Amino acid sequence: MAAYGGHELDSCAMTASRDNEERPARRPRVFSGTQPTGALHLGNYLGAMRNYVALQETHDCIYCVVDLHAITIRQPRAELKRNTIETANMFLAAGVDPERSIVIVQSHVPQHTELAWILNTVAYMGELRRMTQFKDKTGGVEGESVSVGLFDYPVLMAADILLYRADAVPVGEDQKQHVELTRDLAERFNNAFGKTFVVPAPIIPPEGARIMGLDDPTKKMSKSAGSAYNYIALTDSPDEIRRKIKRAVTDSGTEVRPGDDKPALTNLVAIYGLLAGEAAETIIDRYAGKGYADFKADLAEVTVDALAPFQARMRELADDKGFTLDVLRLGAERAEAIAARTMQKVHERVGLVPRPD
Ligand code: AMP
Ligand code: TRP
């Protein structure tokens, strides 16, 4: 069984496929989406992107830039376009291999929205109203001017996943509720119309993969944090990285030792360990008797070095726009072939008359 970030993910993925589908034997399928809403940070990289890359060893993966989700919050047109390509580039620069995995932009495969409509007919207002992300985004006041798109966001997400009959969905803790809704909609549809969808299982990274803010280690690193000193963007220059780590808050005391009473050091040692591929004990031993300043100076260099190949690849991709477009063209073709098969089955189950040839 493949160990994955401390999880035995194959057990849940395999159960999902065995329970669900009479599909020919092949590797279980993964689907995940990322919104193109701005520069990704070290938390996204360590918590999500590296897992996308690792999963390619054991799964057939589809990674999607979810532009139609992004527009549930108004996006300036030029920024949305730039961020969409940049998010695809980030998948590739992090190590998603377009020969092995499918990389797509959501709006390029029209079946996502088509299936969302059909799932709308089985989803309940009440269950969507209970989604915590919806409640957060509306500030709990659901009124006349909350868009239908924001309300319907989780149904589109369910369509993304069910369209490809994904077995497993790697997401952060915050998206777990949406994957549970996806499971409910899949089961409800299957019960009403006959077995059609695979009921997917979420893959949530272990607690250690939660990277905290540099300026406040009690909250997770986030691009929507008030200060740029909260996060290291994957596109930060070496000098910016050094400056941010130097400014990162530390705990009282002088010893480099993680612990419940030392949230800042715990986070910094975790980042060091994940980036350098070293155990916390090794790091603690190395800095025994030395102060925070030495540790932070080295952490800055570890971070700069770890991000250097990623950043070099991002620059190459930015210079070769045709490459990304080729990946997205091929991805859309491969994805659409799978999506069309699912939709044919869905139409038949629901009783929609096939378009005459
Ligand atoms: P978001 O940027 O919040 O849409 O998140 C994109 C992906 O990165 C999700 O899978 C998140 O769970 C993950 N992620 C975001 N922030 C962090 C963090 N601070 N630590 C670990 N993973 C994160
Ligand atoms: N809602 C997810 C987020 O904000 C993005 C997303 C859209 C997604 N569709 C998905 C994630 C399908 C996993 C699977 O992070």
Can you walk through the features of this model?
With 357 residues, this protein is mainly alpha-helical. The chain has two domains: 11-204 and 320-350, Rossmann fold (3-Layer(aba) Sandwich), CATH 3.40.50; 228-317, Orthogonal Bundle (Tyrosyl-Transfer RNA Synthetase), CATH 1.10.240.10. 54% of the residues lie in helices and 6% in strands. It is built from 14 helices and five strands. The chain has a three-stranded parallel beta sheet, with helices on both faces. Strands 4-5 form a two-stranded parallel ribbon. Strand 1 (29-34), helix 2 (42-55) and strand 2 form a beta-alpha-beta unit. Helix 5 runs parallel beside helix 14 (321-350), helix 10 packs antiparallel against helix 13 (292-319) and helix 11 packs across helix 13 (292-319). It is globular, with a radius of gyration of 22 Å. It binds adenosine monophosphate and tryptophan (TRP). Adenosine monophosphate binds at residues 34-35, 43-44, 47-48, 171-172, 209-211, 220-222.
